[in-house]
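question for whoever is on the cluster today: can someone run the full assembly for these? two chains, 406 residues total. i dont have access anymore since they changed the login thing
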Amino acid sequence: MFSGAQISLYPMTGDFVSVILGALEAIDPYRKRFRIETDDLSTLVVGPPEELFPLMRDLFVAAAKSGVHVVLSATVSRGCPGEPDAEICTPTTDLGRVSQGADAIETSLAAVDAAARTGQTVAAQFSYYPLGDGRHMDEIYAAIDFLKESGVFDRAKNFCTKLRGDAGPVFATLGEAFLNFAPEGAHVALDLTVSANSPTRVR
Amino acid sequence: MFSGAQISLYPMTGDFVSVILGALEAIDPYRKRFRIETDDLSTLVVGPPEELFPLMRDLFVAAAKSGVHVVLSATVSRGCPGEPDAEICTPTTDLGRVSQGADAIETSLAAVDAAARTGQTVAAQFSYYPLGDGRHMDEIYAAIDFLKESGVFDRAKNFCTKLRGDAGPVFATLGEAFLNFAPEGAHVALDLTVSANSPTRVR
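^ ran it for u. tokens below:
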């Protein structure tokens, strides 16, 4: 099992470096359980799949507190057969309850309900890619059924689904979609955009 | 057939709105052949698959000419079975020469060699997702063989491949990878990040 993400933060300000560096402190509590590497395009985090979305939530909320328009963009992956198994990625929860159908939705909804609010409103959109078998659309449709009941569903868009709400339930919804709708060994990728403080839509 | 992209531009300046609006003029020549819609997260372009990367190249190079650090992020898709067929998306070239193996690589390399230079150096990384069959890694590995010979290959990263060079051959390489390594009717998605004027690496 290998799981992780390539994460980028884009603060729309000339002072973007200090916003990014300030926000990075928010991931200090995760450093012991993750391998983290940065280059000029993104920061790689490799670690347990169930902690990826909490890590991104804490990073993004810290950046959004700067008040500037800021976007997080990430490519999230688990089970890629081209990556080596890594002990650091051992999940501490059961992954992939898709075979249980409605149960995956129920479990996921309970996790979203339990998510702590952060006080930060965000808009997000993401594409979900269950790879490597013939029934990828079934898994996508099951995940969409969950998303529509999540309480943070905004609308379906071409190629992606849009969410809106408090960062707590939004990132919880993303995490559950990533963890629960493809089998444990499956290759799953998720392409994510999260935005805060946009002047285009203020609420 | 349905093909298009959700595209976002992130200029790292407080004046980001004017950089984005200025760059949008660069896609005027494409408007007749594309359906284009914008919301607070991204701009949807729907049209012929072989014109998606030229459109993004022209948009990004125009934004990069502002001189500020700017990033383009996009989710690109063709053949999604959840989207309706659309006449506007009819390809004018042959798609998907993966069955011809080495020929797909040769055709793609010739297209990259013929790409006009723009004078704008960019760094890019992307993930390529051929969906819905059991041999997706074969298609990924064939595409990687092409990328390594493209002249703009930088390095393999976890979950993605990094390119660097002039925007002309970089976007041509991305376009060929998207068009040529999965069959015509296949569902293919590509998750893209392109950066210019980053202070992290100047060359």
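summary bc i know u wont read the tokens: The helical segments of chain B are 16-24, 52-64, 102-113, 136-149, 167-180. Residues 6 and 44 of chain B are 5 Å apart (CA to CA).
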